[in-house]
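seq as requested:
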Amino acid sequence: MPVASSAGADSRQFRAGRVVAERIEEASNLDLCEAPNRSTGLISEFAHSRGELFNRSGASYLEFKLSLAPRYPRTWLNITGGYLALIMTAVAMMVVHAVPLLPAAVAVLLGALSFGWWIHYLILFFHEALHFNLAPTKQWNDRLAAVFISPLLGFNVATFRDAHFEHHRHLGTPQDNEVSYFSALTPRFIVESILGIRIVRALVAKRRYLQHTQAPSAVAWPTLLSSAAFHGSVIGASLVAAQYALAIAWVAAMISVAPALNLIRQILEHRDFAAQSSTDYSRVVHGPVARIFGDGPLASTFGAAGFNRHLLHHLEPQISCTRLRELESFLNDTALATRLAVCRTTYWTTFVRLLRA
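struct tokens:
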């Protein structure tokens, strides 16, 4: 009898969770992943309804969430892996230089692609630092970010944290300050991204935003100097060692490949398939869009630091990337499972669909 009673309670809780899911569905009308021109949806409604969410076993979502403490060793293992990949790329280029196996132009191209891929991989952990997920204390989080992540970018987490939180508050609206997805994914956009034109525009827009909001820009100067020292050391050491292809590949990765990957990734995460290229979304509401891209070598490196489950991050911004898989598993066992299933795709499918759109 007690077992039957417990099962009945669990069933009632799950049905209550389904009512919550239906309420979210009614409030958003169209799915978060497909809804243009809407500023409300799954993200905002989830924030108000998660206290009533249970899985099929009757476990409370809010109680489950308390168990999702960051796994810092896993985060730092991933960061270490990214730096090892950069070192391996450099070693491979030196081997190719010592034993000419490829034309120099091909070696530079492949080296730039590899350097750019792994630099992009590493800078995504800057995002984890923005959400205080690199260390148990906020002070150590920012110190570690300043040493291991910021020199790659030249940005300080304190400078961009408030601005990034505004992205969460205003996703899909003209007030959003991360606006790459306002642009259509066209061949011209891709070419301009590779040439560095788009990243210059993005940096200028970000600078204007920070000045307008009076963010603490002064703290960025030490970071800029450390970044210049880091990249200067890599390039200088390569030139001293007569590794000219390596130096060129590193510069190309920094000014072309990594920024282009970053801009394209943001479009894949947030651009609605129904968005019009002729519409100025800095004036017209685009609507909140986020997606889940799954696992695999491509998704887990191109979408490192939890970006491959970007929708889940927007549902729970403070949960570490090391726990998003468990979060997804729990939500898949609730009445929200069908909503999340609609949001699952792949980077390649999304790229092709947006490019055709």
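The mean pLDDT is 85.
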